[in-house]
Design a protein that fits this description.
Blueprint: E1 2-8, E2 17-20, E3 42-43, E4 54-55, E5 59-61, E6 68-74, E7 80-87, E8 90-98, H1 106-119, E9 123-129, E10 132-142, E11 148-160, E12 163-170, H2 177-189, E13 191-192, E14 217-218
Parallel strand pairs: 1-6, 3-13
Antiparallel strand pairs: 1-2, 2-14, 4-5, 5-13, 6-7, 7-8, 8-12, 9-10, 10-11, 11-12
C-alpha cells in the first residue's frame, strides 16, 4: 500500500510526497450492529480493537496489497478534507461529517447532489445498491477528439451514530459492478471515530496525516468534491 497527499482544487499544484504503509490485518469482530450497517461502515464504539487500521484521525482504513491512499489538502487552510483510495484503476473518495442524533443526512444530501449536477447540465439516477440508496451522476464533458461524452461518479452515503460517511466511486468501477464490489468492501470496512465533542451537523470530521508516514515519492491527482452543504464539485472523475 502506498500513501500520498495533494492540494485540493488545484490541478497544477506541486504534489506532496508519498510513503509506504505496510499491510496489516485485524482479527477483531464488530459488535452487534443492526440494519444497513450490519456489515459496516462502523462506528469506533462497535469495534473491539482498531489494531491494524491506518489512523487518519476521524477515519480508520484497513490497508491491503495494491491500495494507494492519498489525502486531499485544502490549499488555503492546509486542512485535510478527504481521503482517496485508488485500487485496480478506480478510486473511492471518503469524507465523514458530524450529524444530528435524531436524524440522518443522506436523504437531504442526495437531493443536493441532484440539484448541483442538474445545474451543470448533468443527470442523476437513484438506485438501490448493496449499501442502500445511491446516486449515479453523469456530467457532460468534451472528449479529446471533440465529441461529447460524460464523466460518471457513483455516490454512496451511510448515516451512523452522530456521523455521516460519504463515498464517491470513480473510474471503471462506477459501471462495472464486479470492480465496484472491491471498493464497496473498502467503504464497509471503514471505521468512523466521531469523538464526544459537540459539533454542528455537516461539519467535516477532522482528518490528519498518519504520524509515521515517511516521504518517498509524489502522489497522483485525486478527484475533488465539496462538502455536502455546498453540493458536489465533480472534477477529474472517471
Amino acid at each position: 500500500m502506498v500513501f500520498g497527499r495533494r492540494k485540493k482544487n488545484t490541478e497544477s499544484a506541486a504534489q506532496q510526497p508519498e510513503a509506504d504503509v505496510s499491510d496489516a490485518g485485524a482479527d477483531d469482530e464488530p459488535a452487534a450492529v443492526e440494519g444497513l450497517r450490519s456489515n459496516g461502515p462502523f462506528d469506533s464504539s462497535e469495534k473491539t480493537s482498531l489494531d491494524g487500521y491506518l489512523d487518519l484521525g476521524a477515519l480508520r482504513i484497513m490497508p491491503r496489497e495494491g491500495l494507494q491512499l492519498r489525502l486531499e489538502v485544502e490549499e488555503n487552510t492546509q486542512r485535510v478534507v478527504a481521503v482517496t483510495l485508488d485500487f485496480g484503476g478506480s478510486s473511492l473518495q471518503l469524507q465523514a461529517f458530524a450529524a444530528p442524533k435524531s436524524e440522518g443526512l443522506w436523504d437531504e444530501i442526495r437531493s443536493q447532489i441532484g440539484s448541483s449536477v442538474s445545474s451543470e447540465g448533468g443527470t442523476v439516477e437513484e438506485l438501490e445498491g448493496p449499501l442502500g440508496t445511491e446516486v449515479v451522476a453523469k456530467l457532460p464533458v468534451q472528449m479529446p477528439d471533440g465529441q461529447r461524452g460524460y464523466r460518471v461518479a457513483r455516490f454512496l452515503g451511510v448515516d451512523g451514530p452522530r456521523w455521516f460517511l460519504r463515498g464517491v466511486i470513480g473510474g471503471p468501477a462506477v459501471l462495472d459492478r464486479a470492480q465496484g464490489a472491491a471498493l464497496e468492501e473498502m467503504f464497509r470496512s471503514t471505521v468512523v471515530v466521531r469523538g464526544d465533542a459537540p459539533m454542528p451537523p455537516r461539519d467535516l470530521l477532522t482528518l490528519r496525516l498518519p504520524k509515521d508516514a515517511a516521504a518517498e515519492r509524489p502522489a497522483a491527482p485525486a478527484p475533488g468534491l465539496a462538502a455536502p452543504e455546498r453540493g458536489p464539485e465533480i472534477t477529474e472523475i472517471g
